[in-house]
Amino acid sequence: MNPIECPLHLIMEKISGKWKLIIIYSLNQSGVIRFSDLHRLIGGVSQKVLTSQLRELERDGLLIRKVYPEVPPKVEYSLTGKGKSLSHVLDSLADWATTNMVPELES
Prior knowledge:
The protein is of the alpha+beta class. About 60% of the residues lie in helices and about 15% in strands. It has a three-stranded antiparallel sheet.
């Protein structure tokens, strides 16, 4: 199969990146969240990288960025319907990781 035609190849183009799955998972758990709260929730990611990953997810139609005309600027992020449709997949991955990876970390 040509990699361009493979559905997994296509989705990996959209969600690859060290933080994208964690961002999507966090937004799914939190609903609407401000940048600073998301940054604090995720931890370990620089503001520059988080901003870049958020922009890519917005460009790909997986999240919504809402800017309020306030001083200081208020920006909130939430998942689109397409982004929310990944929730069951991510929940399954999290369950799999808990079952198969956490015991390895504990030993």
